[in-house]
Design a protein that fits this description.
The protein is an all-alpha fold. It has helices at about 5-25, 30-50, 70-100, 110-115. It has a domain at about 5-50 and about 70-115: Helix Hairpins (Orthogonal Bundle), CATH 1.10.287.3510. The protein contains four helices and no strands.
């Protein structure tokens, strides 16, 4: 039976917290750093969940008891590739924003401001609107 190390669980919680905090910032460079930290946290989580090191997974004589599970390693490799692709895309967006605007801060959208200023329609107790009754249809004879 494999138990997770408490130190690794606390480290993973810290990495995910830092990553999500950076991801919610308005600066695109902080968003990029948040994606990178979340990618590293995901890789560390997959390696931790994979269990302790074991014997090689490729054996000719069948399945042995102490074999390592290759699935978390393959998933971590896939996570590395996805994190790298997303990081390069976000870096290109941040660079383009810097070239066009002179800063990398995400601005508020005009339509978001308009929606925020709309009055709340469904806030009162009498906000329920009964469905419209349809006109009676003539029966076919």
């Amino acid at each position: 039976m494999y138990t997770v190390n408490v130190t690794m669980a606390v480290l993973l919680a810290g990495l995910y917290t830092i990553g999500f905090y950076l991801l919610m910032q308005r600066s695109l460079m902080r968003v990029v750093l948040g994606i990178m930290v979340l990618g590293h946290a995901a890789n560390l989580f997959l390696q931790t969940a994979g269990g302790p090191p074991g014997d090689p997974a490729m054996v000719a004589a069948g399945v042995r008891e102490g074999m390592a599970d290759p699935l978390p390693q393959a998933m971590a490799l896939t996570a590395v590739v996805i994190t790298f692709a997303l990081t390069t895309f976000l870096l290109a967006m941040a660079y383009r924003s810097w070239v066009l605007l002179g800063h990398d801060e995400v601005q508020d959208d005009i339509y978001d401001r308009r929606i925020r200023e709309l009055p709340r329609r469904d806030s009162g107790p009498d906000s329920f609107v009964a469905p419209r009754e349809s006109a009676p249809q003539e029966s076919l004879r």
